[in-house]
Design a protein that fits this description.
About 55% of the residues lie in helices and about 10% in strands. The protein is α+β, with helices and mostly antiparallel strands. The protein folds into two domains: about 5-30 and about 185-395, MetI-like (MetI-like fold, Orthogonal Bundle), CATH 1.10.3720; about 65-175, no CATH class. Helix 14 (about 345-355) runs antiparallel to helix 15 (about 365-390). The longest helix has about 35 residues, at about 185-220. It is elongated and about 95 Å long.
């Protein structure tokens, strides 16, 4: 007899002892955590992580600067955190990257970050404390330096002004740098993980729903039903997957949900073939004949007695299909017919930045490419580990 516990318990024990499975679980869990928390943990919590600062475009990883925040004149209320985690938080402030700034008297003077020397200095009214505005326009570099030295020597003694500075001028570090539009790369990578995982989950769900239904009917009823479904399987199987996805995408239109449906409608074939083969062998077993003898209906026999015994190979296929769905979505987004800008997707991020591979900004395309590689590799390793763990022939016999 089997040593200890049910087959499922033994499979789980074998899976936990597999180091590659634990590595795969770690990578998938990290991506899943980032996808669930979303905008709650991104440095840029704006919708679609699309806060653009052309002044700081193409900055290296680790770039650090001061950002001046000016509250916009809007009546929009604060978004609840649970809604903001999924949709992003509205931009209540205007963000201005600063080259340098200082305090003179009761006003804040700043110079916008620019690659041009001698950029004009400006004065700004801090909205929280209603300080007087003092502007310096078209000042020469000499005058700016003199004012800057004044500002450095000035000691801020007014606590109200000091609090206003702290609340309006923030020091920000871009851990993975910025893209050509000045958007935070780390934030877009995190939100891009949500797109890849969502496509995988929904596409696999659609493929399982269609594949298990058609495969079970073909294997159980046989006859003309089996011939019809097998003909449909062979026709769909003969069409290249990417071309079929592109055709469905053109028929349904470009967009977020269209990609889910398009990928799901092309991945059910392999599931249906495997389920059909499993059902063909199981339907002749004694417990199925006993169900028929007891007068059980076809639906009950299929769902209660046959399908639970074919789920092991289906689970393994689902892990491989998950990886395929991520690759297909990335390919569609790279071609421009998948997820549409400004929504971040790892495939679209490669498309936007692949020209920088031959320049000194190759990491802009390598980072999303590495994320795709790691997530696909994790699901493939998980599929192999599940195959070994669910193989009853390898279970320990006492």
């Amino acid at each position: 007899m089997l040593s200890g516990g049910s087959v499922n318990q033994l499979a789980w024990q074998r899976l936990r002892r597999n180091p590659t499975a634990l590595l795969a679980f770690g990578i998938i869990g990290l991506a899943l955590l980032g996808g669930i928390l979303g905008y709650a943990i991104t440095p840029d919590p704006s919708p679609m992580a699309n806060r653009q600062h052309l002044e700081i475009s193409l900055k290296q990883p680790g770039f650090q600067t001061h950002i001046l925040q000016i509250r916009k004149k809007t009546t929009q209320s604060t978004t609840p955190w649970y809604r903001g985690m999924w949709q992003g938080f509205p931009e209540l402030y205007q963000h201005i990257p600063l080259d340098t700034f200082y305090i003179k008297g009761d006003s804040l003077y700043y110079r916008v970050l620019s690659s041009l020397p001698g950029a004009p200095a400006e004065g700004i009214l801090l909205p929280e404390v209603f300080l007087p505005v003092k502007e310096i326009t078209k000042s020469s570099e000499t005058e700016w330096e003199a004012l800057l030295m004044d500002g450095r020597e000035l000691v801020i003694t007014d606590p109200q002004i000091s609090a206003a500075i702290k609340s309006n001028v923030k020091e920000k570090r871009f851990i993975l740098g910025t893209d050509r539009f000045g958007r935070d790369m780390l934030s877009r990578l995190i939100i891009g993980a949500r797109v890849s995982l969502s496509v995988g989950f929904i596409a696999v769900f659609i493929s399982l729903l269609i594949g298990i239904s058609l495969g079970a009917m073909a294997g159980y009823f046989r006859g003309w039903i089996d011939d019809l479904i097998l003909w449909l399987i062979n026709v769909v199987w003969s069409i290249p997957t990417l071309l079929l996805v592109i055709a469905i995408t053109f028929a349904l239109g470009k967009g977020f949900w269209q990609v889910f449906v398009a990928v799901g409608l092309t991945m059910w074939v392999e599931v249906a073939r495997v389920v059909r083969g499993q059902v063909l062998s199981i339907r002749e077993k004694e417990f199925v004949e006993a169900g028929r003898a007891l007068g059980y209906g076809h639906f009950r026999i299929i769902t209660k007695h046959i399908l639970p015994n074919v789920m092991a190979p289906v689970i393994v296929i689902s892990a491989a299909n998950f990886a395929s769905a991520i690759l297909i979505e990335a390919g569609l987004s790279f071609l421009g017919i998948g997820v549409q800008p400004p929504m971040p997707s790892w495939g679209s991020m490669i498309r936007e930045n692949y020209a920088y591979i031959i320049l000194d900004k190759a990491y802009l395309a390598i980072l999303p490419g590495t994320c795709i590689m790691l997530l696909v590799l994790a699901f493939m390793l998980l599929g192999n580990a599940l195959r070994d763990a669910l193989d009853v022939r390898t279970q320990t016999i006492s």
